[in-house]
Structures are given as structure tokens and as C-alpha cells.
Write a structure and sequence with these properties.
Nitroreductase, globular, Nitroreductase-like, single chain, Oxidoreductase, NADH Oxidase
């Protein structure tokens, strides 16, 4: 496992600082109990009106390789190229309707919070997890008969950490590249909105 803590300007919790999105995966099974723990972490995310609109469709390679392969096939080719050793795929969906059938405008936001809790739990368990928007949502919906009220948001792949040198050269370099984010002054404004110069 590559230790890549975020170079934060201000100290933050080590779990958050250390979480990142690796692509180097080992071809070794992930325990089902670890998958369940990730889902349990997601279950306790916050949501507007406690609606809990997140839904997850989970594919474990060892338990059901056929279903896993069908889910894998909905990833874009670039994501397929580095996910050969992924052991778990978790589709993140948002229920766009409330229990009363009205539109839930915060469904995607809340599902994102649940996905982040899942990613943090994966990292806490020593696993590599990478969230991807690069999938064919329509193909996934068709392959798994997802009802229209659910928006297919992303796919998270999970595995044990692998050797970055097993990746194509450009991706191996990215595994070791410095981590960077926009500075705080670019993303946060105090007291009101100031038009960027």
C-alpha cells in the first residue's frame, strides 16, 4: 500500500487525509464481511429529512463472477483497463422520489455522502477503493433492470492494494504523483459571494 497523505494546509483527521483513489489492485479476494462493513458505514450517512435515498448494487467477483462481469462490462474502456484485479464493484444509485412520490432534489447529494462514508470505511479497513463516473449508466440500467426512479450515479471498485508497477506507465506515474487540490480561497468564501476575478 502506498502511503499518500494529503499535504493539507491545516491538520485534518488522518483517515480523511490518507484516503485517496488508487488504481493498483492486487488479485486477491476481499472478505464479504469487509464489504458489509462498507455498506453499514454508508447506511449511517446523513440525508435530508432522513430520506436515505442511497441504494447500492453490489457485485463480488468471487461470489458471482457472471454478474460481476456484466457490471464490469458497463464501465468505459479506460476504467476496464485498470480494473482487471478489482474484486468488488458497487454501483451507487439515488432514489429520486420521496416515499410520497414527490421529487427528492437532494437525492444525489445525499447518495454522495453515503458513498463517501463507504470509501472512508474501505480505507479504514486497509482496502483500495476508487469511485468512477466513467460507466454507461443506460447499459447498467438495462443489464440489471433498474427502475426509472433510480439515478445511476457512479461505480466504486474495491480491492486490496497492489503494485503500481503493474499498471501502464502513465497510470503508474499517477499513483506516485503529488496530490493536489484547489486552495481554500478558491472553494470557500466567508460572509457572502464574491465574483471571481
Amino acid at each position: 500500500m502506498i502511503d499518500r497523505p494529503a499535504p493539507t494546509d491545516i491538520a485534518i483527521h488522518p483517515l480523511i487525509a490518507a484516503r485517496w483513489s488508487p488504481r493498483a489492485y492486487a488479485d486477491r479476494a476481499v472478505e464479504h464481511a469487509h464489504v458489509v462493513a462498507m455498506l453499514e458505514a454508508a447506511r449511517w450517512a446523513p440525508s435530508a429529512f432522513n430520506a436515505q435515498p442511497w441504494r447500492f448494487v453490489v457485485f463480488e467477483k468471487g461470489a458471482d463472477p457472471v454478474a460481476f462481469g456484466r457490471a464490469f462490462g458497463t464501465l468505459i474502456s479506460f476504467n476496464q483497463s485498470w480494473n482487471a484485479n478489482a474484486q468488488v464493484l458497487i454501483a451507487v444509485l439515488a432514489d429520486t422520489l420521496t416515499a410520497k412520490g414527490a421529487e427528492n432534489p437532494s437525492a444525489s447529494y445525499d447518495a454522495g455522502a453515503a458513498a463517501m462514508a463507504l470509501l472512508l470505511q474501505a480505507h479504514a479497513q486497509g482496502l483500495a477503493a476508487h469511485s468512477m463516473s466513467g460507466l454507461d449508466a443506460d447499459a447498467f440500467r438495462e443489464a440489471f433492470l433498474i427502475p426509472g426512479r433510480y439515478e445511476v450515479l457512479s461505480m466504486i471498485s474495491v480491492a486490496h492494494h497492489g503494485d503500481a508497477q503493474s499498471l501502464p506507465a502513465a497510470l503508474a506515474e499517477r499513483e506516485h504523483a503529488p496530490r493536489a487540490r484547489l486552495p481554500l480561497e478558491r472553494i470557500a468564501q466567508f460572509g457572502g459571494w464574491v465574483q471571481a476575478q
